[in-house]
Design brief:
Chain lengths: ~400, ~140
């Protein structure tokens, strides 16, 4: 015998809906209304036929990504002169200004200036905005930014040049075909492996690596994230990857077969240097313009890269010290009959610092180099260009 | 650096005529410094299928590997160094120039771009390869 209205069958044998079913019905209705409203909103703009929208929120980043953007726009204009190309950007720039910038900075001449669609929600994808759960924050931010983009302008083809895969389902719902150029996967199986093996690395803090519970939680987080990332990535019709490595990761995560299209590099301006008349070899552990010159009498090795942890400058120093120590250990007989490393060979490390962390890292590297300068016959030359953005 | 996805800078210094010494992982190992001299590899196992080509640089992972690569690079004579730098420059120019990107981009985007045709008859003929989309906006006449 029941006196509560919500617990199923009543005494009178009349059918009453259980309370949970009513709530479920209510919730389902709400969800349906929301979804319908969202789809309506996403499709509110008129679909522009024969158009390509290039998604690149930080248009003036000046890096390799921007070169890819302008080369892609130029190639689309060449392949389809009648097609309308627009660039989604958060910058305050007109199409003419962007076209001029592409020409001046990258030497890319566009046949006509692109249309510009201004994005106001760009701040949603800035990583500093999310001190914890950065990946999830950026993913949701990216999806919202894509939603803003397609509601402002609905192209036939939505071309993503920055790899915000979480926006692809949204662009598809809005009725666009999705194409993308991916510079690096948002999450890679290497990152997951590092957490699983509990390696202390720059993306895996020591406190997490030491604790089994935290490592497990982080692993679940990464695996779930990778799964959702893969589901979203599958919405792209055309996938291009910048390297075999990225391509291999996308094949595993997205289960698609991306085309490897290497990013365009500005090699023309560099090929005029003569190969003859230089001394020694060159080095580029840190990633930068390794360059050998004969301005001094001694050969030198150059390493260019910002003083970031991933560049592993300490490894470069250790390798140089070991090479010098190995050389010093050779017998005079061997030296007289075999080519040896010139005594005056110098390692030059050039880099920039972006923040206090980098400055501290540079100081500790200086200490390390000074210590070895006395203990071994190594000669390090230090050049540090703080905030030297013009180098890159 | 470890796991650099591509490594444009490595391409740039190869184009500039420097001999690259890069980390044996990801982009530099798979795409750029190919074929490479790997001091850490067992002697005799180098160059699996690229035996014919001249190595364009060095790849290493550990302190020992880098030390050996540095020593080897610095003890090459001028002819050897020039031959390696030349091979590196040719690879940088040939594989990673804008033309290579343009060709790859067109190949990948071809189906999507031809589906953009506003006219159904254009789309059919373009898909069959009969009509070229580059012939201009007025194609019917």
């Amino acid at each position: 015998m029941s006196t509560y209205p919500g617990d199923g069958w009543s005494d009178e044998e009349t059918f009453k809906m259980p309370m949970w079913a009513m709530w479920a019905h209510f919730a389902a209705t709400c969800v349906l209304f929301t979804v319908t409203g969202l789809v309506q909103w996403l499709r509110s703009g008129t679909r522009v036929p024969n158009s390509v929208g290039f998604f690149h929120p930080f248009t003036s980043d000046g890096g390799g990504g921007e070169r890819v953007l302008w080369c892609a726009v130029r190639e689309t204009q060449r392949a389809r002169p009648d097609c309308q190309c627009v660039v989604y950007t958060g910058d305050d720039a007109s199409g003419d200004e962007l076209a001029r910038r592409a020409q001046e900075r990258f030497g890319v001449r566009l046949s006509s200036p692109p249309g510009v669609v201004k994005l106001k929600w760009r701040a949603l994808v800035v990583p500093e905005r999310y001190p914890v759960l950065t990946m999830v924050g950026q993913a949701i931010g990216g999806a919202l930014l894509t939603a803003e983009a397609v509601t402002r302008y609905r192209p036939t083809v939505f071309f993503d040049t920055v790899g915000h895969a979480f926006g692809y389902p949204i662009a598809r719902i809005a009725g666009c075909q999705v194409a993308c150029y991916v510079h690096y996967p948002t999450i890679s199986s290497d990152m997951i492996a590092r957490v699983a093996n509990r390696n202390d690395m720059y993306n895996n803090k020591g406190i997490v690596a030491r604790s089994p519970a935290l490592s497990f939680l982080k692993l679940v987080y990464y695996r779930t994230f990778a799964c959702v990332y893969g589901l979203c990535g599958r919405y792209a019709g055309v996938v291009m990857a910048n390297s075999s490595w990225t391509s291999a990761h996308l094949r595993r995560l997205w289960r698609t077969s991306p085309a490897v299209v290497y990013p365009p590099c500005d090699v023309d301006g560099l090929t005029d240097f003569a190969l003859q008349g230089r001394v020694g070899g060159a080095e580029g552990v840190g990633g930068g313009v390794g360059h050998v010159s004969d301005t001094g009498h001694h050969p030198y090795v150059v390493s260019v890269g910002q003083f970031r942890p991933e560049k592993d400058h300490a490894l470069q120093l250790r390798a140089w010290a070991k090479m010098k120590a190995d050389e010093a250990g050779l017998s005079p007989e061997y030296r007289s009959s075999n080519p040896c490393v010139p005594r005056g060979a110098v390692l030059k490390i050039i880099g920039g610092c972006r923040g206090a962390d980098d400055v501290a890292r540079l100081e500790s590297l200086r200490l390390m180099a000074n210590r070895w300068r006395w203990t071994t016959a190594s000669s390090f030359t230090w050049t540090c260009l703080i905030q030297s953005y013009e180098l890159f | 650096m470890l796991d650099e996805h591509f490594g444009i800078c490595v391409v740039e210094y190869m184009a500039a005529g420097a001999v690259p010494i890069a980390h044996d992982s990801a982009g530099p190992a798979m795409d750029i410094v190919v074929p490479a001299v790997r001091p850490e590899a067992e002697t005799g196992t180098h160059g699996d299928e690229d035996d014919e080509e001249f190595p364009v640089g060095f790849l290493a992972k550990s302190v020992d590997g880098y030390a050996d690569a540095l020593a080897a690079a610095l003890t090459m004579n001028d002819d050897e160094r020039c031959a390696m730098a030349d091979a590196a420059r040719r690879r940088a120019e040939g594989m990673f120039c804008e033309d290579a990107f343009n060709t790859g981009f067109r190949e990948a985007m071809g189906p999507v771009l031809s589906s953009l045709a506003t006219d159904r008859r254009d789309a059919i003929l373009e898909a069959a390869g009969v009509r070229s989309p580059t012939s201009g906006p007025r194609r019917r006449g």
